[in-house]
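Its record is set out here:
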Amino acid sequence: MAAQFGSGKMGFLFFFLFMVSLSTAPAFDHPDLKDHKIQMRPNFHPEGHPFAESKVSSKSNSITQLWHKNGRCPEGTIPVRRTRKDDILRASSIKQFGKKNHKSFPKPRSAEPLPDLISQSGHQHAIVYVEGDKFYGAKATINVWDPRIQQPNEFSLSQMWILGGSFGQDLNSIEAGWQVSPDLYGDNNTRLFTYWTSDAYQATGCYNLLCSGFIQINNQIALGASIYPLSNYGSSQYDISILVWKDPKEGNWWMQFGNDHVLGYWPAPLFSYLSDSASMIEWGGEVVNSESDGQHTSTQMGSGHFPEEGFGKSSYFKNIQIVDGDNKLRAPKDLGTFTEQPNCYNVQSGNAGDWGTYFYYGGPGRNPNCP
């Protein structure tokens, strides 16, 4: 429950969410944004964006958030997930609350030999990616699941990465998708999330609205709030669509949820490399493998099933697209795939009809071939 209308009153009873006015939103605490004038709508959408996208083999338009059962925010305000004392106590430190660990990004390299791996952080991935060009956004439709998490300090997520710079200490990243993270949220609910960093997760950036940066303008969708309904193995499938693109006029990076909800934007001054364009786009899954008992974690990625099981059983991204220099959505070219341990989590891409460019991904983690 997020907010509940009082009987016959306009007041809210606040539980896990509260309202703030747009002018006092957390984003404006950032020193680079003190004189920023809020942009209430993007100047342009990418050409080819399907505002009336047909839903094939899914029920995306039924997706909503649990707090909608009990109320909505009035115009001029936005919903913000309440940070409670227990949330902060679960973090390794107050400084790290709401942040990813260092080096938690996939680092594929298309040239031989095998991809250069970053494994010391315990993060594992199953992704597809494009590189070698200038990119101005990305889009995908992702089905949503409730993967099992073995340890509270582990998570499972499915997201897009929009990356600029090198994979050293200057990486810029904008990220969006769904995640299950007991450490961050205190439960195992599947939640919509965003993330950003301008220095490879060292000091800048955070999840959702837990630090200044992202400017939310939408009063109907709450970042960090639970998504429902969820896909069921061998039964109904539900998915969400996410679009992130750079406004050609103002240079801000916008995010849209579904066909109807422009959520807000990351202002251009937050970034160095992304102030121009992205150099790599990644789509896929990520988990934390803490190996707490000396074995690979059994934390699931996606549905917890391997790609070869296909529709209704494995997780998918479909209609993945990039935004090019002409502000047009198009299918990515020369798509690469990457996973550290394919016997634990894997990825398979394809192209077909209404699904466009798609891939299945995920896995159960620990199994006889992933000890």
Notes: The two ends are 39 Å apart (CA to CA). The chain has one domain: 61-98+125-362. Residues 153 and 183 are 5 Å apart (CA to CA).
